[in-house]
Amino acid sequence: MKIDDLINNSGQWLKGCGDHSDIVMSSRIRLARNLAKKPFPNKAKKKELTEILKVIQDTVNTIKLFKDFLFIRMSELDSVDKQLLVERHLMSHDHATHSDGKAVLISKEEVVSVMVNEEDHLRLQFMNSGLDLDRTWEIANSFDDALSELLEFAYSVSWGYLTACPTNTGTAMRGSVMLHLPALVMTKQINKVLAAVAKLSFASRGFYGEGTQAIGNFYQISNQVSLGHSEIEVIQNINGLIGQIIEQEEQARQALVIQNKPMLEDKIFRSYGVLRNAHIISSQETVELLSMVRLGADLKIIKDVDRHAINQLLIMIQPAHLQKIEGKKLSASERDIKRACVIREKLGGK
Amino acid sequence: MKIDDLINNSGQWLKGCGDHSDIVMSSRIRLARNLAKKPFPNKAKKKELTEILKVIQDTVNTIKLFKDFLFIRMSELDSVDKQLLVERHLMSHDHATHSDGKAVLISKEEVVSVMVNEEDHLRLQFMNSGLDLDRTWEIANSFDDALSELLEFAYSVSWGYLTACPTNTGTAMRGSVMLHLPALVMTKQINKVLAAVAKLSFASRGFYGEGTQAIGNFYQISNQVSLGHSEIEVIQNINGLIGQIIEQEEQARQALVIQNKPMLEDKIFRSYGVLRNAHIISSQETVELLSMVRLGADLKIIKDVDRHAINQLLIMIQPAHLQKIEGKKLSASERDIKRACVIREKLGGK
Question: Which of B270, B289, B338, B343 should we substitute to test contact with A (largest number of A Cβ atoms within 10 Å)?
């Protein structure tokens, strides 16, 4: 498997299947781990980072679970390839900025990815389609167990796993769920929901990760607190909260269908029509229109589009993807044309 | 032929054929005539109007050219039927407001229509597709000749035909041409063109007639002066002016294609996409989008729509037409839904 092969496939988390996949796009578990007695990456010298990377590489090479993983050193990648991995949610923006001693490991179908020497020595990410934190946690746990057998992690009996940033200390686990909440937005209930989320000490972010605004009605909800509760407790808390949000979104969708079907059909089909016909389109407009088309598919108002295609498009329409597809650098206005072209092909437009 | 049959067919002037039919939608000749020694309609009493109507009806019944014409008394029509005739450009708003002694005659394919007792005793209208004022004038002339043989018209050797409004005195002829000028609008040259039109003493109006604003880039250009020139001279003048406008629109279209094709394709296909997918749409938005689709068809950017369908839609999306198609009264918001439905059917949308 090579980095270029990624483009032609989609991550398992985009398949649009699994529990509540009409509202829950994907579930994600992230673990932070650091090697004992080694400086955190931001304090380590270049040589130390290289040594840490070697230890980790040698270790994963002996672990069966990591068989067939793509192992990529940041220093081997050009800026477009780096951006491609960021766009696929396989690594962070920060991980792309300095290359020294950094690498990323990616499993088939992108369920598992590991950043080496980002903020922590190891940042393990596990992603699945639909609402599936429990099974995702099981996978995460098995990888953590396998690594723990061979690596000594920085751990304190009183504090739990030690991490570069104290907010991650404890379980060093973050569970998050990507939600699509168009009806709560359209019925103007979203701010109430997000206020409740914040009050319960959960964080909400946009589709394109930390620091991004919510566009296209996508909201990623994750736990803030990782200290003082077991992983299972944290996941139960998230599941409880997400269950309530799902119920509210379902009710809002029902209300829209019953009270304002023509308006809903109009919005959905216009969005579909524009996506299938535009020849120049920005990513912001695309995501907003895709959101409406996804709602249309979920409500069976549009019958010939599936969620998988829409989810894939959310990834494919980003700059690095468009440039990889085209096979060359593209200016912003060239990308707007290429984006429209990719969308029309995918959705069978003109 | 009945009034309800009109809906299922389109006027010949909407066929989208004839000279320069990419830019010139239709050509129209209007003649005003009054019976000698009878008061103009605005001065005539109800009884006089009825007598005038009877004279005209008896006369046309003996003229072969009027065979198969639909003869409709205003008093026989409900408000929707009246509005239907206005929407089809077969009679004026004014003609619909008071019914006394008023009638309208309509030929097959709506090439000829005659208002009896509107502002003048006879208002004859002749419409054809494309730029075709010469042939349209020949048709008008033959009808005028046939009527003149049997009716004495109010005529002065020094003033020509006498009419209720002095601006029509003389030839009492108005020639007009409906133009579609999207490229002149998009390249912001239209105001310069309209200023020149006004300076040359021609009038410009919107698609929906006198007193309407230009929407959808449609402009109806007609002569203001009907005194002091023969009909042939007036038509030559109009043809000269229209020829120049056509040339400018053609140049502007070429410039757009060469300089900004992606923007043009985007605008055109988005319009097409919205029309084929909207479920609620106003008439204003419809006309604007149809204008872009018409341009797309004319430039062969859209290949599967013909001008005839677009021209027909410009008529069909109006309130009375929608209500006749539906077979019942519709509120404004019900019409917006029905309009979208009619458009989707016609353009093969979702």
Answer: B270
- Which residues does B299 contact at the CB level (< 8 Å), separation at least 6? B253, B257, B264, B268
Question: pLDDT at residue A210 above 70?
Answer: no
In chain A, whose CA is at the least distance from the CA of B265? Answer: A279
Residue B350 sits at the chain A interface (C-beta within 8 Å): yes
**Which residue type, as a one-letter code, is found at position A61?**
N
| B218-223/B202-205 β-pairing | antiparallel
The fraction of chain B above a pLDDT of 70, given in percent, is 98
What is the pTM (predicted TM-score) of this model? 0.91
Nearest CA-CA partner of A4 in A61, A80, A68: A80
Q: Do B263 and A277 touch (CB under 8 A)?
A: no
Q: Residue B212's pLDDT is what? A: 61
Residue B280 contacts A where some CB pair is shorter than 8 Å = yes
Summarize pLDDT for A38-72 with one digit per residue, the tens: 999 999 999 999 999 999 999 999 999 999 999 99
ipTM score assigned to the predicted complex: 0.87
* Interface touch A279/B273, C-beta < 8 Å: no
Q: Which of residues 258-277 of A touch B (CB under 8 A)?
A: 262-263, 265-266, 269-270, 272-277
B348 CB within 8 Å of a chain A CB: no
Taking CB atoms and an 8 Å cutoff, what residues of chain B touch A305? none
- What does the pLDDT look like over A83-109, one tens digit per residue? 999 999 999 999 998 888 999 999 989
Residue A225 tokens, joined: 């607190």
Give the CA count within 13 Å in the CB-facing half-sphere of A324: 23
Q: Are strands B155-156 and A155-156 parallel, antiparallel or unpaired?
A: unpaired
How many helices (H) and strands (E) in chain B?
12, 10
For residue B263, report the phi and psi dihedrals to the nearest 5 degrees: -60, -40
- CA angle A52-A55-A57, nearest 5°? 105
